[in-house]
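Suppose you are handed a protein chain with no further information: no name, no annotation, nothing but its sequence. What can you learn? This example shows the usual starting point.
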Amino acid sequence: MLKTTRARGLMIGRGAIRNPWLFRQIREHQRGEPVFLPRGRDVLAYVRSLHEALCSPAVRDSAQVQKLKKYLNYLGVGVEPTGQFLHQVRRVTTTATLFRVCAHFLDHDRPMPLEPFRWPSKRATLWRGSSGEVPSHPYR
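A reasonable first move is to predict its three-dimensional structure. Written in structure tokens, the prediction is:
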């Protein structure tokens, strides 16, 4: 992208939350080296390190879970193609349950590209009226 656009830099931000290995992967790619592809257990270790960095024992468990969910929303779109990981994570209320869900989906040695999966859009069904027609946008 940098060669094509001749831009001086990239904004990565949330991509680095989803994939903390992104900067390493960019450097490896630029040097022509094989690019590191994390395994499920690498991602699970990342979630645990996020918990350690963000959460304090002085804060109630439900608040800690809510804080972690904010980060897992970015990570979750690249964990598995059905959306079940995010579906389950968004419904947990305790740290123990959160880590059980994470272990279920991430305790393995398969490669995790962490690129977002494409899910079918539910937008059309959300906007349909009772007649089944999609209403026109009120400001168009």
